[in-house]
């Protein structure tokens, strides 16, 4: 088994080396991974990014576009014919139609290739002609990325964490009540295992719907063709005396290990290990609205993600066996258009502060990591109104069901510690008052020739993620 795994790793390493040499000499390929925590706008991000690379009038912050060096862009068939294609055209039609709506979320891995015809810059400008650079965008659920953190845990550690989370959430009340009558040391029964797994899955779905970020195992929410298989039919159980071989807890532990071996590791080898650049989208405004506990939960999820990207001690061997190492990692706070632009620097500062704490917790050192506040598709306009004798900076936009609404989320603090300190301390509410939340519908767009959809700092995000490769 070990020899087979080593041979497989060496084969992948050789293939990855060949791909890199070919790309460097002929047509470079950038593999951009895109994922997001709960309801962060992943599908909108990819759709708007592609649309704005095809029509680059709003992409001045991407150096190659601002300098006029991107001579053309076009979609072409993706290289991996075993993956579903990201349905760009359908999603764009949803966002730009006469009655625009948010597109349906993707529920599995998908891919899209965008090829850019780029004229080189600097010393190479007069020595080489334009060349094609291929951007392969790999879209996958955030829950699957968080699953990679399970590789460092055994069943006992995962059970303790999962039970503690469920016990502290309203969504976990019925699950915890059902678990109270279960004897983990009893003989294994398949019917009981299925009921426990179904109850745990129902709790995870409710938690995700409520906006919680750490709903793992991810395949419980998006099982695909694994639905009903024993590898996704387990649940966390408390430790118990006498829970030996043949017990309910022992079988649950066996299935947990099988999940890591048969589901998580293959995903890592097939997709994650081949990514060059990665963006993780975070709905930080929703976490602020839900309170300090939600912000702390988001920070912990960010730390788990950073731990996933942490290079091992044998970094060279790791790269050889598992392909490329992610070179740049962006954590983007989405929906910046829900705030007046005057508050954008504060939102970005909170994200950067959370990222620093997450990096410290994960003992992370590796890729170039950055935080940013963006809106992949701007759905609002700004205005100022007088209220109570003072000027209030608002955003206004369409709301689901029709009509317009003006909105002020509240004043974000200038010092991120005013957010992170109560979050770390486990406060139930913000000491200075709550932050609001609003669900806007996409704005009706009238795009001029050569312009993609309006956004906020999407061009700067693109510059950080892959601008250096153009």
UniProtKB/TrEMBL annotation:
Which Pfam families does the annotation name? DUF463 (PF04317)
Top-level taxon of origin: Bacteria
Q: What is the protein's name according to its record?
A: YcjX family protein
